[in-house]
Amino acid sequence: MNKNIQHRHVFYVSGFDPRGAAFYHRTFKEESAKQTKINGIEINVQPRKKHSDFSQAWKIAAKDQGQQVETQYEFLRWDDIVRKHWVKSLLSIFLDFIYVSWVFITTGTLKRVANASRTPAITGLYPAVFIAVSGLLAILLWFATVVIFTAFQLAWLGWVLGSILCIAVIIFSKMWGDRINVFWLLRIYAFTSRWASGEIKELDDRITVFAEHICVVLKSHTQDEVILIGHSVGSMLTVAIAARVAEMLDKEQVKQPLNMITLGECIPLLSLLPKAVSIRNDLSHLSCSNKIQWVDYTSPADGACFPLVDPVKVSLSKASYCHSPTLLSARFHKLFKAGYYQKIRKNFYQMHFLYLMSNDHLGQYDYFAMTAGKQSLKARIAQQYQKEI
């Protein structure tokens, strides 16, 4: 019989998002209050406090069917690194587009991504199509203006007005692209390409700091459950962090395991790049470790992830891994009202954040029950996995 949780420590790693702990603390507080009406778990989210130079934390006091549960929810910060690589200028975005296109096409990574899952491959074409269409429209508009005014022997005016219209289209496209988050995807591809090439030196140091901190918590044995959660690109970081934690736990013979949850994972976007040797080594080590219990949640409706794709199997040869993570679907179509679900499916950015949001209906996936409720992750997954089988 699984013991209920009274004390839990959650480590959360956000995706490629320049927003820091304040945004995620506010989101958790607002969404957990809504979820209380669905799952009946009373959740009191306390103020956010600085825990270290690289983390902020808040305590969660919950009451689940009469049992008190205390959770330390710690936001592991790497948003400063994200902001450093969050290009804004039109020239930088265009140069990243050229760089990403070159890397993914010439190395065959685009083909490997498509073979792993057509969903992210199709979504990955979104920035390319947007930039190409915007550029073509600007050129055609300039050309048409010049031709028309030249016919009236006002070529000089056609050049001036055509140039103005061309620039206006480019500026509007940049503004619209920011609004619909098309450049967010492009920034992710550029970042993962540079990470695979070993260009993001500060990230490796940060991962080591995170791993050491998690090990300290595990060795203290003061928590009934310790969970490391990575969302989106944060799932890539959790793989690297967890692999180092596993190595440290083996050396120091620590018995308490680390639970790991990846949400909307896009790990193959990095691991399928030829130069990403480090992440493939981490995946191999994780798959053969008995110190890490890995659960992966994705959704076929989430165009920014690899839905129900095993990141271990698609990244490694059969001889390089031992076992795979538990793959589960969030089943968003059963968690939200039909009208809202159909509406949000049209917005891939909002769809990708549903893992962190409250639901309309009670279902097997409940982010707030997992992070603040009395049931252990092991018991929850065993119950859910049996239902899915």
Describe this structure as you would to a colleague.
The structure is a single chain. The protein is globular. It has two domains: 7-82 and 202-388, Rossmann fold; 86-191, no CATH class. The protein has helices spanning 21-39, 79-84, 90-106, 109-116, 118-151, 155-179, 182-196, 201-220, 234-252, 268-271, 277-287, 311-315, 332-335, 338-344, 348-352, 367-372, 377-388, and strands at residues 7-13, 42-45, 49-52, 55-64, 67-76, 225-231, 258-263, 292-298, 326-329. A hairpin with a 2-residue loop joins strand 4 (55-64) and strand 5 (67-76). It is α/β, with parallel strands linked by helices and 389 residues long. 56% of the residues lie in helices and 15% in strands. It has 17 helices and nine strands. Strands 1, 2, 3, 4, 5, 6, 7, 8 and 9 form a nine-stranded mixed β-sheet that branches. Helix 3 crosses helix 7 and helix 9 packs across helix 11 (277-287).
CATH class of the largest domain: Alpha Beta
Structural class: alpha/beta
Shape: globular
The residue-averaged pLDDT reads 92
Number of domains: 2
From the 3D structure, determine the CATH topology of the largest domain: Rossmann fold
Determine the fraction of residues in helical runs and give it as a percent range: 55-70%
Q: How large, in whole angstroms, is the Cα Rg?
A: 23 Å
Give the low-confidence spans.
none
H-E string: EHEEEEHHHHHHHEHEHHEHEHHHHH
Write the CATH architecture name of the largest domain: 3-Layer(aba) Sandwich
| Fraction in beta strands | 15-25%
| C-alpha termini separation | 21 Å
* Major sheet characteristics: 9 strands, mixed
Q: Could you tell me the number of beta strands?
A: 9
Total count of helical runs of at least 4 residues: 17
